[in-house]
Amino acid sequence: MPSDTKTLLDLNNLSVRIGRQVILNDVSLKIRSGECVAIVGGSGAGKSTLLRCLMGLTRPAVPFSGLLAFDGQEMDFSSLERQQKPKRIAYVPQNPDQGFDPLKRLRWQWQQAFRVITGRMNISQVQEPLLEELGLKPFGACFPYEWSRGMQQRLLLAMALMGKPRLLILDEPTSALDPLIAAQVLRAVKKYAEMHNVAVLIVTHDLSLAARYADRTTIMNTGRVVEFGETSHLLSAPQSDYGQLLVNHRDWITKDLGQLSSSIAAE
Ligand SMILES: Nc1ncnc2c1ncn2[C@@H]1O[C@H](COP(=O)(O)OP(=O)(O)O)[C@@H](O)[C@H]1O
Ligand SMILES: [Mg+2]
Questions:
Q1: How does it sit in the membrane (predicted)?
Q2: What is the pTM of this model?
Q3: Total structural domains within the chain
């Protein structure tokens, strides 16, 4: 947990619907400066919809209540007027395929990202250490397919970090990567975030991932927050039925695998 524990993001009572279906129901969330928070929930719980709202991208969802304060900016979700998107929130897509043009060299894509994110034309040398910090080699004349998926994902991360965000959002960061590469990418995120006091919001269906990386965890089910607290506390004493179900299921998988490996060892 970082020493600077000022609240960076404070979302209160966000409710949204898509068509006539209520997708998020009174969702509140707090993220402190520099901490790592996980949102855990099954498919269809409303996690991606929540992320999109935090970034000011609501459609097709229609918010009908909620207030967001982020880094000195405010958004009122009940007002239908055109709102400004919060600045200094960065987002990394789940799959590197969504982030690159396969026919353009990586160097060109890096420069384009710099122009879009900073609004400046000439890329500064300052950006190069960012690549090194994330364990990436110089681009040379490479196209995306010449880099591994883990490297591509870290390059997307470096692009997201160009604008010096205060909050980095990762939506299902490991589902498109194999476990070793996923761990490598998340370690790079954690290291960078700690050094630069960037808060990280990881959205996942994987409670073990939250256990490993998040200071605090929110559990969502059918559009509602059913639990929010310190990850270690939540894992040892979940209060909600759904939280207990998730934690027990996680134990069940670990125990089962443990039994399996000891029976294989005994053969
Ligand atoms: N474009 C859409 N049109 C209609 N319903 C949608 C759309 N996007 C999401 N939903 C509905 O919103 C609910 C929450 O979706 P989502 O936020 O993607 O959940 P999660 O990311 O937790 O899997 C789901 O029931 C889904 O069917
Ligand atoms: Mg999703």
A1: Peripheral membrane protein
A2: 0.85
A3: 2
